[in-house]
């Protein structure tokens, strides 16, 4: 099957990749002048019973959702425990990250973070570390 396409908007300052940095906030990432903004969110620690529609219902309370997908095993169709939510604009995605991170869904706290589909961003060395 074809991989799920994500809508992503990158905004970079003219000072280049060195200016991109994640600043820690209470449960999220704050946008600064040199930081990219994206409309794609990764949602982890999902209960295996969570459906696309449950995820869409929760995230649409924060802003205009373009698409939602709970990732599943190709042969068994069992949830892999994570998914992706795409918003129409970066402000809604940032608000969802702040508001919905660690929200209980089906009696399990979900983990929300930005999804970076661009390989150059993933390979930059900047990352979030979560210790559970």
UniProtKB/TrEMBL annotation:
Q: Name one Pfam family in it.
A: RRM_1
The protein's GO terms of the molecular function aspect are: RNA binding
Q: Does the keyword RNA-binding apply?
A: yes
Query: Where is the RRM domain positioned along the sequence?
Result: 39-117
Protein's name according to its UniProt entry: RRM domain-containing protein
> Can you tell which superkingdom this protein's organism belongs to?
Eukaryota
Could you say which residues form the signal peptide?
none
Recorded hits in Gene3D superfamilies, A to Z, give: 3.30.70.330
User: Which controlled-vocabulary keywords does the entry list?
Assistant: RNA-binding
């Amino acid at each position: 099957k074809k991989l799920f396409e994500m809508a992503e908007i990158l905004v970079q300052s003219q000072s280049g990749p060195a200016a991109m940095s994640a600043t820690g906030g209470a449960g999220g990432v704050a946008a600064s002048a040199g930081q990219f903004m994206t409309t794609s969110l990764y949602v982890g620690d999902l209960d295996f019973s969570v459906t696309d529609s449950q995820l869409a219902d929760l995230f649409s309370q924060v802003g205009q959702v373009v698409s939602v997908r709970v990732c599943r095993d190709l042969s068994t169709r069992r949830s892999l425990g994570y998914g992706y939510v795409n918003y129409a604009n970066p402000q809604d995605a940032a608000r969802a990250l702040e508001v919905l991170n660690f929200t209980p869904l089906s009696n399990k706290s979900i983990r929300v973070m930005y999804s970076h589909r661009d390989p150059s961003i993933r390979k930059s060395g900047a990352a979030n570390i979560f210790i559970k």
